[in-house]
Design brief:
The protein is built from 23 helices and 14 strands. The chain is mainly alpha-helical. The chain has a two-stranded antiparallel sheet with strand order 1-5. A two-stranded antiparallel ribbon has the order 2-3. Strands 4-12 form a two-stranded antiparallel ribbon.
Length: about 650
């Protein structure tokens, strides 16, 4: 990574904002704060950009290391791919239909991060707005330099607002740092916000340099701006423009899919979990994500142990099954153990604590995500490297082996779910599921080399924000909306071919494209947000989904593609099959848009924010801005 001084990048952002009131750095309702320091030097602008970059990474890993439940997990448990899995929690967020309310998350627990997204996304908007608000006070900037800063600020603001409008729907538009506290914001319509951020990103693509012209990987580049602009064009129904930007990224920007092994090969525990080296494994090793030879990474986010950019995601703890517990036993009634290397019972050939981590499953994948998703043309494509257990990429429960040496009859034999007709697992929600090991595994420095450790959670890890594989799938999406199925099919098949799939599509529908996103981008894309965006785009296009449904953007709270996928593919929500602590998994169509937090509504004293349909306080007659220019003009006014 050309010896990236990550610590320096992050520290400059933290130190520059340290002169502001503490409240400036804390979540606050919209922008009720008064900055004490204006950015009047180039180093101050660098600090603001660094804070934006750091904050972008925080979305995935949280603002500091926490023991369980990452923000992105909420995005997945409100999708077709996962559900809440912490079965010992009486407040398990399973009954979404009744539990998702305007006050959800006000007292944030370890699983539900709904309120976190609101607070932190508006914090990110605030950081981004610092740059255009103060850049004219910085002397000596030439036009190109000024535009480069503005382009990066526009990226960060647009990234946050794309998330806001597809998580929360219509929201307040804030584009500048107010000179006096403003408590009379009015909601701005989603379409208006999308128009504004699309216009901003068109400028950013012109102003921000290519990655090849930058000294560091991890900074916002022209390529990252193009990827975000593609999504903006899709969200505004501009299919041809989206395709043109994708063409530029795929063929004219120096990026390419990684098709062979590269970088550092990590095979840290071959005695227990051997890896056959392959491109998918190498592509997702944290040590390979931010190196110059990785031509697929459009925007990666450095996250390194031992630096100020080191926040441990505990990915194996958060996304792996709870295999070492008494509710999962051998036919002899013994259960798996997480032995420290100093234990007399330790066996290097059965060290699953080190090899796959000690998961506790705050969320767990659906049956669809584990099995049906991987069936193409009616065939389970076992050659797909992303679902291949022979290489070690994909982890199956029955690949683990019983490791309690007192379990004489079963020691060293593969786990089984049944012994004849007897079920050996009494909590199949939390204890028994397969998972993508190549995505989840990250070395934990607190465990490695510590002979007393029996709790391997997963450490800090560089993470992808944008990869070229997604660009192909975004282009396929635009081609589908245009009705060009041949081109859409070809783009999906490019991604499948790289994964060594034998089953390729002869033609695709929107479901096939969205399924390929799930296979390729698990724990990279924000799954709920992307399904919400695609629901909007599909309605704009007039095309039908794989179920034969078409949609209207004005009535998505009543029926939408996100909800239909959950209805058809999730084996949990609305099926009345699973009850946990008296809670049944339920979800409604209106939950595609999360409720506007009541705390934000209450804090906006002199104007009423519009609540979303289906939630307490909804009133369709509440006025909102339908042109972003009017919302921006109103920011200068206080009433």
């Amino acid at each position: 990574m050309k010896n990236i001084p990550i610590k320096a990048i992050v520290v400059i952002g933290l130190s520059a904002l340290a002169g502001c009131k503490k409240s400036y750095l804390q979540p606050d309702p919209l922008s009720f704060y008064e900055p004490e320091a204006t950015f009047t030097t180039k180093s101050g602008l660098d600090a603001a950009v660094a804070m934006c970059d750091k904050h972008l990474r925080d979305y995935w890993s949280y603002t500091s290391t926490r023991d369980l439940s990452l923000p992105i997990s909420t995005e997945y448990m409100l999708s077709d791919l996962a559900v809440a899995g912490k079965t010992d929690d009486g407040n398990i967020f399973a009954d979404v239909a009744t539990r998702l309310t305007p006050t959800t998350g006000e007292n944030t627990d370890d699983v539900n991060m709904i309120k976190y997204f609101w607070d932190e996304t508006f914090n990110g908007v605030k950081y981004a707005n610092t740059i255009p608000s103060f850049i004219d006070k910085v002397p000596g900037l030439d036009s190109a330099t000024k535009h480069e800063y503005l382009g990066r600020a526009y990226f960060h603001r647009a990234f946050r607002y794309l998330a806001l409008v597809f998580q929360y729907g219509d929201v307040p538009l804030v584009t500048q740092i107010p000179t006096v506290p403003k408590q009379d914001y009015k909601t701005t319509a989603k379409a208006a916000i999308l128009d504004m951020i699309t216009s901003d990103m068109e400028k950013a693509v012109q102003w921000v340099p290519e990655q090849s012209a930058m000294p560091y990987i991890g900074m916002i580049s022209k390529g990252a701006c193009r990827q975000l602009l593609i999504k903006c064009y899709l969200a505004t129904g501009q299919w041809d423009k989206a395709i043109d930007q994708a063409n530029q990224l795929i063929s004219g920007s120096g990026y390419s899919l990684m098709t062979g092994t590269f970088g550092t090969f990590e095979n840290p525990f071959p005695s227990t979990w051997p890896i056959t080296r392959n491109v998918i494994w190498d592509l997702h090793r944290p040590v390979n994500k931010c190196i110059w030879t990785n031509k697929e990474a459009i925007l990666a986010m450095p996250d390194r142990d031992g630096t100020d950019a080191g926040i441990e995601q505990h990915s194996m703890r958060n996304w792996g099954p709870m295999w070492n517990i008494g509710t999962l036993v051998s036919p002899a009634g013994k259960y798996m153990q997480a032995y420290a290397t100093s234990s007399k019972s330790y066996n290097a050939n059965l060290d699953y604590n080190s090899a796959v981590g000690r998961g506790i499953a705050p969320i767990r994948p659906t049956y669809f995500a584990q099995h049906d998703l991987w069936v193409v043309n009616g065939i389970d494509d076992t050659s797909d490297l992303r679902h291949n257990s022979r290489t070690g990429n994909w982890a199956r429960m029955d690949s683990l082996k019983y490791n309690d040496p007192t379990d004489l009859a079963w020691y060293g034999k593969n786990l089984r779910l049944y012994n004849g007709a007897t079920l050996l697992c009494t909590d199949t929600v939390r204890d028994w599921f397969d998972w993508p090991h190549y995505k989840v595994f990250a070395l934990d420095p607190n465990h490695v080399g510590n002979p007393a450790s029996n709790n391997n959670k997963g450490g800090a890890a560089d993470w992808y924000c944008y990869r070229l594989a997604e660009t192909y799938l975004l282009r396929a999406e635009a081609e589908f909306y245009k009705g060009d199925l041949a081109s859409a099919t070809a783009d999906v098949n490019v991604v499948r071919t790289r994964a060594k799939c034998k089953q390729l599509y002869s033609t695709v529908n929107i479901g096939d494209i969205v399924n390929e996103r799930a296979r390729e981008l698990y724990m990279e894309e924000w799954r709920h947000e992307e399904l919400s965006r695609i629901s909007w785009c599909l309605a704009l296009s007039g095309q039908s989904d794989e179920f034969g449904n078409s949609y209207n953007v004005k009535t998505l709270s009543d029926n939408n593609y996100w909800f239909q996928r959950i209805q058809h593919y999730s084996d949990y929500y609305n099926k009345n099959r699973v009850t946990v602590k008296g809670r049944v998994y339920t979800i409604n169509a209106n939950n595609i848009y999360w409720p506007i937090p009541q705390s934000a509504i209450d804090a906006n004293l002199y104007q009423r924010l519009r609540q979303n349909p289906g939630y307490d306080g909804y009133d369709g007659s509440v006025a909102e801005w339908t042109k972003w220019q009017d919302a921006v003009a109103d920011e200068l006014k206080t009433h």
